[in-house]
Amino acid sequence: MVRRISSKWAKTNAIRRNREVARHLPETSKLTADHLKRMLDRYKMVYVKPDRGSYGNGVMRVEKSGAGYRYQAGRKIVKFRRFEALFGALRRLTRGKTYLVQKGIHLLRYRGNRFDLRVMTQLSPKKRWETTGIIGRAAAKGKIVTNYHNGGKVYTAETLLKPHTTNVHAQLKSLARLGVQTGRSLRKSFPGISEIGLDIAMDKSLKPWILEVNTKPDPYIFLKHPNRAIFNKIRRYQTAR
Ligand SMILES: Nc1ncnc2c1ncn2[C@@H]1O[C@H](COP(=O)(O)OP(=O)(O)OP(=O)(O)O)[C@@H](O)[C@H]1O
Ligand SMILES: [Mg+2]
After folding, report:
1. Ligand nearest to the CA of 53
2. From the CA of 107, which ligand is nearest?
3. What's the gap in Å between 217 CA and the centre of ligand 2?
4. Measured at the alpha carbon of residue 202, what is the angle toward residues 78 and 214, in degrees to the nearest 5?
5. 209 and which of 25, 74, 142, 201 could share a cystine (Cβ 3.0–4.6 Å)?
6. Residue 232, SS3?
7. What is the dihedral of CA 175, 176, 179, 181, to 10 degrees?
8. Does residue 220 line the site of ligand 1, with CB under 6 A?
């Protein structure tokens, strides 16, 4: 049985079938010149990323502005006048691999750095989906990905959200629910799946967007949570299988 799905495209298409979950998916398509052009016209800012990537490697932020186009990879920014020149450069960078283009979400910031949240949702020993932990990651200064391997720092979700809302608790509750809905719908297509880690972006209206669903989520990030009971439960659920 498949216990891990590495294709972001396959996972996105599986969970898109659930209407409630679909509302939280930023538009995503395979990278082609036509798709990129159309999505840049529509959203002005998009993310381009490998279909089977990890650690934030190969992730790029592409923008359209009055003066032309630019992409950012790491801290490097490259500018172009014409779309054809931009796409030519991207084609060289992405050669030989499938890439996706996704509506860019303007992440909330903490002390000036972009952050997103990781929602851990697992099948309990009683075989019910349950969100067992939520934690946050803030990008290093000027970076476009929040991954630890790219200098990201871990904080509690409460710390990151508090400056943006008066009701952190309600936000976390709805994220927990979104995790459960996503787990259920993913398991319909992939019955071997028993835990997921959602990468969630919050926009400035505090709407959560599912950037990615990891099917082999790292439990150890929760060692950084001051409440050790969270990590212990996650491990208990993992070893109960
Ligand atoms: N559409 C988007 N809008 C805003 N930021 C994004 C978007 N897609 C990705 N990012 C940023 O880039 C980071 C890495 O992207 P993503 O999680 O899709 O790939 P990955 O981390 O390489 O894969 P994995 O989590 O499997 O290792 C995200 O955590 C987020 O900070
Ligand atoms: Mg990720």
Report:
1. 1
2. 1
3. 9
4. 80
5. 201
6. helix
7. -100
8. no
Residue 183 near ligand 1, beta carbon < 6 Å: no
Amino acid symbol at 140? A
Segments of the chain assigned E as strands: 28-30, 45-50, 60-65, 68-73, 76-80, 99-103, 109-110, 113-123, 129-138, 153-156, 195-202, 208-214
Residue 104, ligand 1, Cβ within 6 A: yes
Q: Which atom of ligand 1 is nearest to the CA of 103?
A: 1
Question: What does each of the 241 residues of the chain score in pLDDT, given as a tens digit?
Answer: 778 999 999 999 999 999 999 999 999 999 999 999 999 999 999 999 999 988 999 999 999 998 899 999 999 999 999 999 999 999 999 998 999 999 999 999 999 999 999 999 999 999 999 999 999 999 999 999 999 999 999 999 999 999 999 999 999 999 999 999 999 999 999 999 999 999 999 999 999 999 999 999 999 999 999 999 999 999 999 998 7
Does the beta carbon of 199 sit less than 6 angstroms from any atom of ligand 1? yes
Sign of the torsion formed by the C-alpha atoms of 204, 76, 211 and 83: positive
Instruction: Parse the chain into domains and list their residue ranges.
Output: 28-103, 107-239
Closest CA to 110 of 68, 62, 152: 152
Which of 3.10.450.350, 3.30.470.20, 3.30.230.10, 3.40.50.1370 would CATH assign to domain 107-239? 3.30.470.20
Q: Is there an atom of ligand 1 within 6 Å of 74 CB? A: no
Q: Is 197 close to ligand 1, i.e. is its CB under 6 Å away?
A: no
